[in-house]
Amino acid sequence: MKDLDVLIIGAGPIGIACALECKKRGWEYTIIEKGALTNSLFNYPLNMTFFSTSEKLEIDDIPFISNNPKPTRNEALEYYRRVSTSNNLNIKLYEKVIDISKTKAGFIIESDKAHYQSKKVIIATGFYDIPNLLNVPGEDLPKVFHYYKEAHPFTLQNIAVVGASNSSVDAALEIYRKGGNVTMIVRGDAIGDRVKYWVKPDILNRIEEGSIKVYFNSEIKKITPSEVILTTPNGEKAIDNDYVIALTGYKPNFKFLEKAGIEFSEDGKSIPNYNSKTMESNIEGLYLAGVICGGKETHKWFIENSRIHAKMIAEHLEQNMSDV
Ligand SMILES: Cc1cc2nc3c(=O)[nH]c(=O)nc-3n(C[C@H](O)[C@H](O)[C@H](O)COP(=O)(O)OP(=O)(O)OC[C@H]3O[C@@H](n4cnc5c(N)ncnc54)[C@H](O)[C@@H]3O)c2cc1C
Asked: Does domain 2-130+250-320 have CATH number 3.50.50.60?
């Protein structure tokens, strides 16, 4: 069994930032990542542009050069890949952590491939793996997607895009521009407040001119192979449909955290318990980093404001150097 000082779960931007801090201090560390490097970014829409400018996505002050102020998904993949490879970070890909248990000496970490012993553990597992489901009949049909990649397959098709946030708006606009017939289904009465300020006029104008249809204050009640049934303020409505793209947000793997012994706030937001100065959870030696810290509040933390978690954790570990 490998003996580590720090085991980091998740090779997203923040897990990588944590690994850089460990490497600088000469600690024995490894990242275990269940998918590809920066797996969440890899699964973003192919043509996605970040809302942050590139310098705000930098980790460890390593310059992130992009063609435009706001980088694309491809540029971000290139950046985090180069940061990881040129620093020779210890990363094990395609290996899923299943269980973390506390021992007297630290932690035993069980993955689907091996067991590890580590003095400290950092959980940086993000929130992009578990979509918030609509929980309606027909959601399991193969025409229903909870992730959006690109518009081409949806040309000349009737598409229902569920949601009114950035992801939904970007998908609706892109599919409309590639010749899809787009209807947005929005639970609230307007396009989301957080929609990027430079995109919002575009979607509002497309809705106003009727190029993209929208049902506000409406929800999907049922999905069939050829229709979606909506509940709208004017009663039930059936619309022709080939594909449903439900972009209703994502949530952290709460079961995984609970199993590790993490406690949560009971205010409905399920925010994991951690010390905001050190990022240490309610379990000594077990740290949380990155967007997972927001619990159900997935808009609270970004790369921009959570990249500092890596330094905060490393500084706290340094103070407890005798244990590390
Ligand atoms: C469409 C979209 C656009 C965004 N745009 C921006 C932006 O412009 N600016 C910004 O600052 N933020 C943005 N964000 C938010 C933020 O960038 C991402 O959520 C970011 O990926 C968070 O980094 P992270 O390292 O905390 O988590 P993630 O990048 O999600 O990394 C977590 C990693 O952990 C791995 N993992 C999970 N469970 C396990 C397990 N059991 N074992 C092993 N590995 C595991 C996952 O595979 C994943 O690779 C955006 C988010 C989305 C969804």
From this structure: yes
